[in-house]
Design goal:
Strands 2-1-3-4-5 form a 5-stranded parallel beta sheet, sandwiched between helices. By secondary structure, it is an alpha/beta fold. It is built from 10 helices and 5 strands, in the order E-H-E-H-E-H-E-H-E-H-H-H-H-H-H. Strand 3, helix 3 (about 65-75) and strand 4 form a beta-alpha-beta unit. It folds into 2 domains: about 5-140, Response regulator (Rossmann fold, 3-Layer(aba) Sandwich), CATH 3.40.50; about 150-215, Arc Repressor Mutant, subunit A.
Length: about 220
């Protein structure tokens, strides 16, 4: 049996070793390479030509959602499964819109992760039962869908800026990290304040830190 090649994008050594042992222990798949950041991942993917990329959303350098878009642009046939601690209710559908084929929380059991990997390798979409129901309800405009929380109204880029603020980055650091102008970051901050109904930058930073603590970083 030819084993499906899986590439890992994960900067935590213990998590990466655990994933490698789990995947390499299967008869139908194997880890063909790994990277700690987006830049290394792009190079590694070009070299190893995997069938699937299993990636965290929290990456050094660029936003995980932007990484998905870059991977899909370079390799349209490559599947991406997000394996993250970030709240799926906020990120799962964003990841799918960016081009991922699935989203699974790190708190899930190994058996569920293997199910997610195999389903994604088949070209199917993988979400938890709860998130699948939520996605379908949103798709068909169900009246049972609860109103969006203010943070859900942020664009992908605004959400990334908000996360960086919570990590303690100032405007110039965010601009350098995301390869944006300072003015553009300031515009994003202004939009975020409006959407979250925050009056000033100090309150914005406080809200960002509180949210990041709840989200699990």
């Amino acid at each position: 049996m030819t084993k499906a090649k899986v590439f890992l994008v994960e900067d935590h050594p213990i998590t990466r070793r655990g994933l490698t042992q789990l995947i390499d222990g299967q008869v139908d798949m194997q880890v063909c390479g790994w990277a700690e950041d987006a830049a290394g991942a792009i190079r590694g993917i070009d070299e190893s030509r995997p069938a699937l990329v299993v990636a965290d959303l929290s990456l050094k350098g660029i936003d995980g959602l932007e990484f998905i878009k870059q991977v899909r642009q370079k390799s349209p046939d490559l599947y991406v499964l997000i394996f993250s601690m970030h709240d799926e209710s906020l990120y799962a559908q964003r990841a799918l819109r960016a081009g991922a084929r699935g989203y699974i929380m790190k708190a899930e059991a190994p058996e569920k992760l293997l199910t997610a990997v195999r389903k994604t390798l088949r070209g199917e979409i993988y979400l938890s039962e709860g998130e699948s129901a939520r996605a379908l309800a949103n798709l068909f405009g169900s009246s049972a869908v609860s109103p969006k929380l203010p943070i859900e109204q942020l664009s992908d880029r605004e959400l990334e800026v908000f996360r960086r603020i919570g990590e303690g980055c100032n405007t110039r650091e965010i601009a350098e990290c995301l390869h944006l102008s300072v003015k553009t970051v300031e515009t994003h901050c202004s939009h975020i304040k409006t959407k979250l109904k925050v009056k000033n930058s100090r309150e914005l930073a406080r809200q960002a830190v509180l949210w990041l603590d709840r989200d699990g970083r």
